[in-house]
Amino acid sequence: MALSNMQKLLLIGNVAERNILIKKLHKLGCAEVVATQKIDKMQSVDFQQDIDENKVKLAKLEFCLQTVKEYKVTAKKLAKEHKIDYSPAKGRGMFAVKPIISYESFEKLQDTQADIFSQIEELKNCKDEIVVLKADRQKQNNLLVSMAPYKNMSVEFSRFKDTKTANVLLGEVKNSNLLLLETIREKGGEYEVFSGDTSSGVAIIIPKDKREDIQETLTDVDFAVCPIEETKTAAQIIEECYRALDEIDKKSDRLVEKIMTYESIREDVMKLYDYLTLEVAKAQSRNNTQVTDATYYLEAWLPQSEAERVDKELTESPLSLAFLIRDPLEGEEVPTLAVNNGVVAPYESVTNMYSVPFYREIDPNPGVAFFFFLMFGMMLSDAGYGLLLMLGAGIILAVRRPPKGQLNLVKIIFMGGISTIIWGFLFGSYFGVSAENLGIWYLFNPIDEPMPFLVISIAVGLIQMFVGMAINMVALIKQGQPIWGVSSAFSWYFLSLGIGGIALASKLGNWAKILGIVFLVLGLLLLMLSGTFGKKGAKKVSGAFSALYGIINFFSDLMSYTRIFGLGLATGVIAMVFNEIAKIMYGMLPKVLGVVAVIAICIIGHSFNVAINSLGAYVHNSRLQFVEYFGKFYTGGGQSFAPLGSEMKYYSIGTPNPPKTKKSKA
Q: What is the rounded distance in angstroms from the CA atom of residue 551 to the CA atom of residue 531?
C-alpha cells in the first residue's frame, strides 16, 4: 500500500501513424501523455480548432441531458393529470455504477453523431418554441392584469372619444383614491367608476374649457390613461385571453411530451459524450507532441507495474517507432497514483478532497483509513445505528458491486457502520437503550461515565498526532536530515511522557515524577534543537525559542479531538431523548394509538439522529484528518495520474459481462 513508482515513456515515430499510436495508448489505458519541451527543428501542431469543435458538440450533448432532466418533473405532473402520454424511463439511480462498453463498440460511436445531433437540433427547436410560448403567456397575463380595472365595463373601449365640446378620458385609479374624484364634479366635469379589485376603471367627461382646472385632480389621484382602443369590451378581451392561454398551455404540453421522447436517446447521448470527451483528450495529447514533416516525439507517464506490458505492446507493434522507458529525473513533475487494497482505496477520496499526495512523499491513505474508521464509530457510538449503516450500505454494495474507485462514500459508510457497531457494543448503546437495561455486557456507558470516554478520545488523537510526527521523521531521514527528523518527533514524545509522568506521580510514586521531569527537560531541549534547522546565525537562537511556542499549538490540536467526545455523547443523548418522548406518549395515549406514536417517533427520531450525526461524523472526522493529522507531515500539492480513458464520465471501457472462469480441481 503506497504511491506507485512512475516511469516515463519517450517515443519517436512516423507522424502519419501518430493518431494510431495515441489510440493504442488509449486502449492500453495506463499512459498519460504530457507536454514535451521545445526541441530544436521540431514544432508543435495546434489542434485547438478540433478541441473547440468537440467542446461545442459536448455542450450540445449536455444541453440534451439537462433539458430532458429539466422537464421530467413537469412531464410527470402532466401525465398524472392525464394531459400527456408519458411513462418515465428507468434511470440509473443514485448509487449507480458506470456501465461497461467494449472498446470496439466505443470506437463505432463516431457513426452515431449525425443522427444524435439531428435529434438534438429538433429538441432545441422544441425548447425554443416553449420559450416563445412562455413569452406569449406572459403577454396574455399582463393583458389580463391591465383589463382587471375595466372588467365591469359593458361598452367597447373605442367608444371613449373626444367630442367637439368635451374631452372624454378612460383610465384607472387606485380604489383608495376614488373619493378624491368628487372634485371633478365640483369643477364642472362628470365621471363614472367601473369597480375593480385594487384599481377601478374611470370614465371622465370634461368640458374642454375646464380641462386645465381638472388636470390637478387627475394628478392627485394618479390617473393612468388607458391605452387600449379596441372595438371590444373588457369582458370580450378577457375571454380571448383565457382562450389564448388555454391554447398556449396545450401547445406547451405537446412540446413537453415531445421533449420527453428524447429520453430514449439518453444512453446514446451519454456514450457519445464520453466518446467526444476522449476525442478532446486525444487532441490535447496530439497538441502535447513535437513534430517534423516526417516524425513526431511523444512523452507519457505510466506506472512502473505497467512498463513491461507497454514495452511488449510497443515492441510487437507494426508501427514505425523507437522508444525508451526510464525513471523520473530530478525536478520533473511526476503524477501521483495511489495503489491500495479495497479497504484503504475508498479513503483516497477523503485525502484527495484536501489535496492529492505529492509523488515523492509517503502515502497518507493507510493512516487516514485506520483513524477515519476508528473515529467514525466513536462519534456515532451506538451499535443499533452502526447496524443500520452497515446493512444499508452493504445492500447497496451487494446489489451494485461497484468496481474500485466508484461509490467510495458508500464503502466508507459501510466500514463506518462496522466501527460504530464495535464502539456501540463497548459503550453499551443500542438505539439509545443502555446495555445495562438489556442485561448485556458493556465496558462503560459514556453518558454515566463521561471522563473515560474523554480520555480515550484525547488518547486516540495523541496517537494519531504521534503517527503523523513519525511519518514526518521518516520523510526527513529519507531526505538526508536524520537529526532534524528525530529531534522534531521525539521532542514531542518526550514532552508527552514527561507531562504524563508528572501527572501520574501521585499514583505511581516519586520515581515517576523524577522520570517525568527528565523526559520533560529532554523534550524541551530537542524541541529547541529542531527549531534551529534551516536557519543561520542569530536566527538559530530565535528559532530555538520560537519552537517552544509550538507547545501551545500542540495542545490546541490535541484539544480538537474532544469533538469525538462531544459528538459521541450528543448521539447517545439525542437517542435517549427520542426514546423518552416515545415513552411519555405511550403513557398518555390509548394503547393502540400509543403503539403507533411510539413507532412513528422512534422511526422519525432515530432516522434523523443517525442521518445528522453520520454527516457530522464524516465532516468532523475529515477536519481532524486535514488539520490535526496532515498538519504534522503532509505535503500534498500533487497531480492525480490521469491516463487516456480516465476522462470518461458515464461509461467504462472493458469487457461487458466477462465470462466466469471455472477453477480447476487440484
A: 12
| 519 close to 501: Cβ distance less than 8 angstroms | yes
Residue 93 lies in a domain: no
For residue 625, the enclosing domain spans 339-481+533-632
Task: Name the band, by pLDDT with cuts 50, 70 and 90, for residue 663.
Answer: very low
Output phi, psi for 22, to 5 deg. -65, -35
Considering only CA atoms, which of 340, 135, 158 is closest in space to residue 232? Answer: 158
Say whether pLDDT at 60 is over 80: yes
Residue 660 in this model has a pLDDT that exceeds 60: no
Closest CA to 568 of 410, 374, 346: 374
The reply to whether the predicted model has a pTM over 0.70 is: yes
Dihedral sign, Cα of residue 268, residue 271, residue 277, residue 280? negative
Domain count, the chain: 1
- DSSP label of 447: T
Answer whether residue 659 is part of any domain. no
Q: What is the mean pLDDT of the chain?
A: 90
- Does the residue 192 lie in any domain? no
* Ordered DSSP codes for 589-635: S-HHHHHHHHHHHHHHHHHHHHHHHHHHHHHHHHHIIIIIIGGGT--
Phi, psi of 452 (to 5 degrees): -60, -40
CA distance 452 to 492: 24
Q: Is the confidence at residue 591, as pLDDT, over 80?
A: yes
Is 621 in contact with 245 (CB distance < 8 Å)?
Answer: no
- Residues 450, 433: Cα–Cα separation, whole Å: 17
Cα–Cα distance for residue pair 447/573, rounded to 1 Å: 8
Strand, helix or coil for residue 197: coil
Q: Is the pLDDT of residue 661 over 70?
A: no
pLDDT digits (tens, 9 = 90+) for 521-554: 898 888 888 878 877 776 777 777 777 878 888 9
Contacts of 423 (CB under 8 A, 6+ apart): 377, 378, 380, 381, 383, 386, 568
In this prediction, residue 17 carries a pLDDT of 93
Q: Residues, the chain, total?
A: 666
Buried b (16+ CB within 10 A) or exposed e, 83-112: bbebeeeeeeeebeebeebeeeebeebeee
The whole-number average pLDDT for the span 344-358 is 95
133 falls within a domain: no
For residue 223, the SS3 value is: coil
The answer to whether 309 and 4 are in contact (CB under 8 A) is no
Q: Name residue 297's beta-bridge partners.
A: 12, 290
* Listed residue (209, 636, 130, 571) closest to 380, CA to CA: 571
Would you state the pLDDT for residue 391? 96
Pick from 208-212, 463-467, 587-591 the range whose average pLDDT is largest: 463-467
